[in-house]
Amino acid sequence: MSKITAAITAVGGYVPETKLTNFDLEKMVDTNDEWIRTRTGIEERRILKEKGKGTSDLGAPAVQDLLRKRGIDASEIDCLICATVTPDMTFPATANVIADKIGAGNAWSFDINAACSGFLYALTTGASFIESGRYKKVVVVGADKMSAIIDYTDRATCIIFGDGAGAVLLEPTTDGTGVLDSILRSDGSGRQYLHMKSGGSVSPATIETVTAKEHFVYQEGQAVFKFAVKGMADVSAELLERNNLSADDISWLVPHQANLRIIDATANRMGLPKEKVMVNIQRYGNTTAATLPLCLWDWEKQLKKGDNIVLAAFGGGFTWGATWIKWAYDTK
Ligand code: UT7
User: Of the four listed, 32, 86, 132, 193, which is most buried by Cβ atoms within 10 Å?
Assistant: First the structure.
């Protein structure tokens, strides 16, 4: 019998309508459009502004989008995994809330926290459930409302992040397409460079932690940049090598959208020309767990059955990784 693999059979996405442009940010902090564009590649990001709305309000419409495209009902989903660092609440899991909002009453659901690598971690986990033969329809969501944890007086971080969600449906196949290999890594000693100081069990929220702005993203940008360039490029090259793939075999690189300079360095290391690299950072900024599925969502119509695609990410933890998928369908 041929091996069961997990094919991506539909992609969904959602970004809120409100745009926060570089020119808007010029009025909020001491920055300018030219600096942001040349240092990061970002021109604008989307922000979920409505009061009382959270990450599940990004994830739910993204999943509904893919259900509509695949023509199936939410009740058919067996398992729903949400990668996020901005859950609606500390508990319950945002995946539970998304499943409730879309009516996925037969799904068990849970969150994965691996920051910007969260989607790759969740994709690999979901694919294993399909490969085992135990589940037939697993939804993997990457969703983050980064605006909830950004200090809009800190020019070092507020220019980078945005809100959004993307989702994929995994189903079993034996035709050789699907998630074929992954290399995932983590190194918790990197936490000093990228974290949120308070709100967890080490330092629960107090008036003092709020006053000290400890519930926002803390990032030492230059240090993270160096680790990200090396981590993403190394693991992508290793993935190609161990699968005997050359740059010519790869149709698309889907890199985490943190910084255009990190994306270029990864593509160069893999020997890939710009035409094969998905880049939408200029429109959405860094949406953390949502960057990779939002790229697939934007490029879905150009993908062809049999395309070799490498997804690569690096983020807080540190966590990083690369995944090789063979695309499973042509979009009509
Ligand atoms: O997705 C999770 C993983 N995260 C990443 O991969 C992010 C990795 N890091 C980065 O992308 C970059 O380090 C940043 C975009 C965050 C910053 O870019 P950089 O080229 O590393 O800038 P820098 O921090 O070295 O700062 C250079 C200069 C400094 O001024 P001085 O000290 O040279 O006078 C900063 O104060 O730029 C200044 N600066 C700004 N100027 C205008 C910092 N932020 C801004 C700003 N506008 N927004």
Answer: 86
From 158, 280, 286, 295, the catalytic residue: 286
- Percentage with pLDDT > 90 across the chain: 98
Average pLDDT, the chain: 97
**Whether the predicted model's global pTM rises above the 0.85 cut:** yes
Q: Whose CA is nearest to atom 8 of ligand 1?
A: 225
Which is catalytic among the residues 79, 96, 256, 295? 256
Ligand 1 site residues, Cβ closer than 6 angstroms: 31, 35, 39-40, 116, 155-156, 159-160, 221-222, 224-225, 228, 258-259, 262, 286, 314-315
Structural contact between residues 153 and 276, judged by C-beta atoms closer than 8 angstroms:
no
Domains of the chain: 5-176 (3.40.47.10), 180-326 (3.40.47.10)
Calculate how far, in angstroms, residue 220's C-alpha sits from the geometric centre of ligand 1: 9
Give per-residue pLDDT as tens, 226-274: 999 999 999 999 999 999 999 999 999 999 999 999 999 999 989 999 9
Sequence-ordered list of residues with C-beta below 8 angstroms from that of 169, at least 6 positions apart, any chain: 8, 9, 10, 11, 66, 67, 70, 137, 138, 139
